[in-house]
Amino acid sequence: MGVEVVVDGLSKSFGAQTIWRDVTLTLPPGEISVLLGPSGTGKSVFLKSLVGLLKPEQGRVVINGVDICTCSERQLYEIRKLFGVLFQDGALFGSMNLFDNIAFPLREHTRKSESQIREIVLEKMEMVGLLGAEEKLPGEISGGMRKRAGLARALVLDPEIILFDEPDSGLDPVRTAYLNQLIVDLNAQIDATFLIVTHDINTARTVPDNIGMLFRRNLVMFGPREVLLTSTEPVVEQFLNGRRQGPIGMSEEKDAAQAAAELAQLRDHEVGVPQIVPQLDVSPGLPERAAVRRRKDRVLRSLRNLAPAAQREILKTLTPDELALYGFAAPATGAWPTEPVPQRVPVAEVPPQMRPTPRPRQPDPIVEEPAETSRRRWFGRKRGAR
Asked: Residue 183: helix, strand or coil by DSSP?
C-alpha cells in the first residue's frame, strides 16, 4: 500500500513573490488525489516541494515520519526512493530508445543485472501497453505513447507515491480518456498513493478519490471528491463550468467588483457546478481498487463534518447493504434528507475486513528550470542499492 503524505502549513516564495502560503492537506495512502487550479498558481512548484527539489520557507512535509523540509541529505535520498514522477513533457532522453529511457532509473539507482533490468522494464512496458516499442526513439512516437513511456519509467523502482504533472498536457480528449483509465487501472494493481496536477475538468470529475484547488496563493479546499464537486464557492463553480464569469481572470486575479457583477448576472441563468458523474471503475479482469474500501471507511467516519450536499452524494454511492452496515437509514421516498443522520453501529458488529486499519499517528510559481536540467537533478543522484 502507498504511504501517507502529510503537508502542514507549507509556504513558498520566490523573492518577494508569494506562490502559496499555509497549505495544509493529507494525501491518504493508496488513494488518487487531484490538485486543480488556474495556470500560474504554483501546482508544479507544489510537486517539486513534495520531493524536496524546492525548499519551502515554512511548514512541513512528513513522509514515513520524516520531515523532508528539515531532514538530512541522506534521509531525503532514501525518501525519494518512494517517489515516481511523470513529468509534464514525459522527460524522455531523445537520444535513447524507449527501453533505455525506462531502464535509466534502474541503472542509476540499483545494482541489478541487465537480465533483471530487462525483466522489470518489459513488465512495466506491458502494464502501460508499450510492448513491442522498445527500440523506438521518443521522436518516432506519438505524444500519448511518450506519456505512457514516462509513466513506465516512473514505475520501474516500484514507488509508493506517484506524482503526475499535467499528464493530459498535449493530448486530445480521447487519449486523455485512455490515460485516465490507465491511471485508475494502475492504482488497482500497485495500490500506491497518486497525486495528479491537472487542468482537465473531465479528469478531475471522473478519476480521483480526493480533490483540492489552489487559487490566489491559497488552498481553497481539499477533501473527498464530492466536497469540491458540490461546492458553491464561486471560483470552484467558474473553474468546473469553464466560463469567463467569476473570480478567475486572464492573469488569475480579477477585480472583485467586476467578478461580483458578473456573478450577479449569472444567478438567473446558470447556478452551481455540473452534475456529479460516476467515478471511473477499473477495467474488466483487474482486481478492485483496495483504496475504494479504505476511502469509504475514512470518509464515512467524518461524514457529519461535510456539507449537506456532499453528504448526500456520498450516501448515494452506498448500496442498501452498505447503508445498513455503516448505520445509515435509506430514504423512504428516494430523496435524501438535507442532513443525513447516522445511526451508530457497535464496532463489534462491523466485519473485521470493513474496519479501518489503525495507523501510528504522524506528527501533527513560478520559476521553471530547463527540462534537461530538471531531469539531471532528479536522476543524477549517487548510485546506491535499493
From this structure: helix
- Of 16-30, 126-140, 364-378, the range with the lowest mean pLDDT is 364-378
Q: Centre a 10 Å sphere on the Cβ of residue 55 and count the other Cβ atoms it contains.
A: 11
pTM: 0.80
The answer to whether domain 5-225+361-379 has CATH 3.40.50.300 is yes
Q: Sketch the domain layout of the chain as residue ranges.
A: 5-225+361-379, 232-266, 290-354
Cell numbers at residue 319, please?
A: 448500496
H-helix or E-strand spanning residue 85 = strand 83-86
- Go through 130-145 and write b for each residue having 16 or more CB atoms within 10 A of its CB, e for each that does not: beebbeeebeebeebb
Q: Are 117 and 106 in contact (CB under 8 A)?
A: yes
Sheet with 218-224: strands ordered across:
83-86, 161-165, 193-197, 32-36, 210-215, 218-224
Q: pLDDT digits over 73-92, tens only?
A: 999 999 999 999 998 766 78
126 vs 124: CA distance, rounded Å: 5
Q: What are phi and psi of 201, to 5 degrees?
A: -70, -40
